[in-house]
Task: structure prediction
Amino acid sequence: MTQLEAAVSDTLTEEMREAAQLEGVDIGKVIDAIKAGKAVLPRNKRHFVKAPRVIGEGFLTKVNVNVGTSYGYSSMEEELKKARIAVEAGADAVMVLSTWGKTREIRQRMVEMLPVPVGSVPIYDAAVRALETGRKVVEFSEADFLELFRQHAEDGVDFMTIHVGVTNRSLRYLKDSKRILKMVSRGGAIIAGWMIVNNAENPFYKYFDEVLDMAREYDVTLSLGDAMRPGAVMDATDPQQLEELFILGELVERARKRGVQVMVEGPGHVPLDQIEMNVKLMKRITSGAPIFLLGPLPTDRALGYDHVAAAIGGALAAYHGADFLCYVTPSEHLSLPTMEDVKEGVIVTKIAAIVADVAKGHPFAIKLEKKMAQARKRFDWDEMFSLAVHSERARYKIEKRPYVDKGCSMCGPFCALKIVEDYLCAEEFRPV
Result:
């Protein structure tokens, strides 16, 4: 059985038990959420996920990290190290999005090495094969769509992005649309190019039942990709984006009926005032399916600081119901991220997730905030560091400018907490 089929039959799996313990919630909550399709537990039958995560409504906001080689720059060991750094920094899942070199070997190594769910985009491999043999990136066969999906499933990938909402109808409207950036989805653009060259329907859409059969066989969670997502805030919430969402809503229902776990990917660039509406509309159209968002970025002008812009958008999106945030690094829209970029991206996105969880009143998040407040009151630096999102940086800051008394070097003897402790909270003080 898949995790969804197990939940529907009220069968407790070991992955559900471990995810509930990690989350700090009752196991019944996990089973009910998966049964309703409002949560997923990505876990390929061929991948032993040591730290399974439940993603969805009512649970902690999860963070995904993208790693992988790129054309002209391919170092397997470097990408493996990035993945390890990401998990150490708090990533809940890693997507392997290699577009050059030994893509399958890199993917297999990631699955073998990582204790968290691993995701991929199988259509990338078809484009890589074509390019490596002197063809254009869209010159591959219809059979490659399903063949590579199965290959990724056999390799143990836990969740896969398939851009199944791109149809011939949507492409006709896209060409004449008012969009400034017609399409920014890499996987979506590859499929769209293939459809145009071959004058054919999207095979993922055409053979969706076959995709479901393979996903069910390996218990691969489908992540329905947003090929028509806006790539600029000026293009947000337009007819192309919404039409694809309606298609994905129909496919969510088909997947659930076949016992396949499914989540839906969301818009990438959305002005702050449209984020709440976008998230709630996605939830409505997909009957509460878990939402996987890149960002969203509420401005296009934060080059070099896109991770900060995405964290602002991500915190608001998660507060209003997004469940899974894909990190953004300082190199977004510019270059392949460095190891330091990966670490920075994870930490900033993790902060966005925490901000949302606190605002939503998640018991585990609130518990940690209370512990931090109590540690600050006691000037317990070791406890504060243990609770910090990134204790290494916190320690570095205080060690750089140490202060011998209670407090830090910023306020010194003017520390508000110290003054209150010495006078307001003194036993001899009796309010008149």
Remarks:
- The first strand starts at residue 39 and ends at 40.
- Residues 3-360 form a domain with the TIM Barrel fold (CATH 3.20.20.540).
- The first helix runs from residue 3 to 8.
- The CA atoms of residues 49 and 115 lie 5 Å apart.
